[in-house]
């Protein structure tokens, strides 16, 4: 997994690490289960990050309430995300065609190749990012879709009754073959089978195909939404 450093910034504890494959960009986040940081805590974190030579800082996906301290410290919105939820009651049938199987560590290079084809550079996962996505929740499931080779994959996480579609990637050459639908339906069924009561997923506001897929499978938009924030040193 990626190496993170924990920072004590006033009353708040923050976590900083490199943003995926870009060594000049840092990711600043709160620790899980802690309150959103105040402005002076974020500013202290920025001072420490600047001393380590980073030129830019981004956050994880934050709710409006979580964004306040960052915005007051000078962060701006990099990209807004839709947040969608599924109650796991009515799950549509899976399409035929794609063969799904359990994913393994030796699949990771092929999965990262699919990820690189499916996402623009800012959002692509590197090897550490994929491992982080799999390890982000107490229970997780990695599924691989094959159609003449690896065509897509999904990482689903579970914490108590809440599930998270952590990552869904389908190679652009395999769009409109039912692969995304098969992977999402498989994830929803797994969550319900293990006692889940809700599944959450976020996606870029500009990602029309993903939004259409999730809504067609019964996901509904949450009103608050999320955003990734960014801070440029020297701006």
TrEMBL record:
Keywords: Acyltransferase, Transferase. GO terms for molecular function: acyltransferase activity, transferring groups other than amino-acyl groups. Gene3D superfamilies: 3.40.630.30. Residues 98-235 form the N-acetyltransferase domain. PROSITE patterns: GNAT (PS51186). It comes from the Bacteria. SUPFAM superfamilies: Acyl-CoA N-acyltransferases (Nat). Signal peptide: none annotated. InterPro entries: Acyl_CoA_acyltransferase, Bact_Acetyltransf, GNAT_dom. This is GNAT family N-acetyltransferase. It comes from Actinomarinicola tropica.
């Amino acid at each position: 997994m990626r190496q993170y450093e924990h920072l004590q910034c006033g009353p708040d504890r923050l976590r900083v690490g490199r943003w995926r494959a870009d060594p000049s960009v840092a990711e600043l986040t709160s620790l899980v289960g802690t309150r959103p940081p105040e402005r002076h805590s974020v500013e202290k974190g920025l001072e420490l990050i600047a001393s380590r030579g980073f030129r830019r800082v981004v956050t994880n996906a934050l709710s409006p309430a979580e964004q306040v301290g960052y915005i007051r410290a000078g962060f701006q919105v990099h990209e807004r995300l839709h947040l969608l939820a599924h109650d796991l009651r009515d799950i549509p049938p899976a399409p035929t065609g794609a063969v799904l199987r359990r994913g393994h560590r030796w699949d990771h290079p092929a999965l990262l190749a699919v990820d690189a084809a499916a996402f623009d550079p800012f959002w692509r996962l590197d090897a550490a990012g994929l491992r982080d996505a799999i390890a982000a929740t107490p229970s997780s499931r990695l599924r691989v879709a094959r159609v003449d080779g690896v065509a897509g994959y999904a990482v689903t996480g579970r914490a108590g009754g809440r599930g998270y579609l952590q990552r869904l990637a389908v190679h652009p050459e395999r769009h409109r073959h039912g692969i995304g639908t098969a992977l999402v339906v498989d994830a929803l069924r797994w969550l319900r089978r293990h006692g889940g009561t809700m599944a959450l997923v976020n996606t870029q506001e500009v990602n029309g195909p993903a939004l259409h897929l999730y809504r067609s499978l019964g996901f509904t938009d949450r009103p608050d939404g999320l955003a990734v924030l960014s801070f440029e040193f020297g701006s």
